[in-house]
Design goal:
Length: about 190
């Protein structure tokens, strides 16, 4: 069974390859001494900077894809959603984990995911199978768990119809109560 595709994974590889090609092209121009005009110098310097930019961006995306996979695995095996637990398992700080999670959310890698700053937790479809809004396909993963928390703009607090516990889940999603396992709906 192969790993799921992560948004940005293919672009990462393309950016790195293009970055290397641009840098090598610029270095080739420098090595061959083809810099007879200011236009050639400008073109070579432009290729060098573009190549460096693409390399840095590709590496950054690659690191984010790797972090996404790692966080997903950690949340699937221990779906408490604790940012501190993720940081501890990764050997990093909670600030780094929060920064990565915010980038993942911003770049569309971690859909149906929000950070509960007050409780230092991730509420996420990364850890479970949460239906996307308005009948879209289901996000793969093991059992979804909702946690007792406060609402954020991306999250809503829904009372469990079975046990009455308050659960914070992504707006427009379906999840399971973190207390009794009953299905709760935030549509």
């Amino acid at each position: 069974m192969g790993q799921e595709r992560v948004k940005g994974e293919t672009a990462t590889k393309v950016e790195i390859v293009l970055g290397v090609l641009f840098v090598l092209g610029a270095l080739s121009s420098l090595g061959q001494g083809h810099l007879y005009s200011s236009q050639a110098v400008f073109s070579t310097v432009g290729m060098l900077f573009l190549g460096a930019y693409l390399l840095v961006r590709g590496i950054e995306w690659g690191q984010l894809v790797k972090a996404y996979r790692s966080y997903s695995t950690l949340l699937a095996h221990s779906p408490s959603g604790s940012i501190s637990e993720i940081a501890s398992a990764e050997g990093t700080t909670t600030e780094v984990v929060k920064r990565n999670l915010k980038l993942m959310i911003k770049r569309g890698m971690a859909t149906n995911t929000a950070i509960d700053e007050q409780n230092n937790r991730v509420v996420s479809a990364m850890a479970g199978s949460v239906a996307a809004p308005a009948g879209n396909r289901q996000v793969p993963g093991p059992q979804a768990v909702a946690y007792q928390q406060h609402a954020t703009p991306e999250m809503v607090v829904v009372e469990c119809p079975s046990c009455g516990a308050k659960n914070s889940i992504p707006r427009g999603a379906i999840a399971q109560c973190g207390h009794c396992g009953a299905q709760i709906d935030a549509r």
